[in-house]
Design a protein that fits this description.
Layout: H1 12-31, H2 46-51, H3 54-67, E1 72-76, H4 82-89, E2 94-99, H5 102-114, E3 120-124, E4 136-139, H6 151-161, E5 166-168, H7 182-188
Parallel strand pairs: 1-2, 1-4, 2-3, 4-5
Length: 191
Amino acid sequence: LLRGFGIAARDRRRFLAADAAFRLSSDAAEAAGKARPPPPPPPPRWHWAMVNDAPRYAYFARFLAAHAAGKSVLDAGAGAGLLSIAAARRGARRVVAVERDAALASICRATLAANGCANVTVVRGDAREISEVFDVVVAEVLDAALFGEGILPLYAALRARSPGAAVAPRRATLYALPVACGALALRSAAD
């Protein structure tokens, strides 16, 4: 699905090599005197680990196969647009992909265009600000701590706006283990 991006998302070495090649091509164009607009910022590196998480994607793909056909779908935190493509390919009537990160929203548009997903609209912004009611909501914004990307307020807003929607994920479990680490305490302690 990420064909044509020049970035091999399979492993860190290949990503770094692609990133270096991108920088070299930009430097070479500048040295040749070609006026070029600045490239968009690169996507966050953590995003590629999520793209390559096969069990995570399989869960959402199964959910969309069961619920997307003929329905309106909100992809909150769309990232590169993989779940939007999955929804479109599973017969969704309409898909709205919402992404806060500018680089990821740009990649999402390109990914959707490359995959012929004409029924998907990309919105750069916060999914809580979308006023439309949806039949299906997928929010693949879970981080390791459940709270980092504002998942709880997001879900509260989405469920209030689309109370009858099929939502994935519907629940999550957070496990914690107390650890004492001076370096982390200095970085993470609340005042």
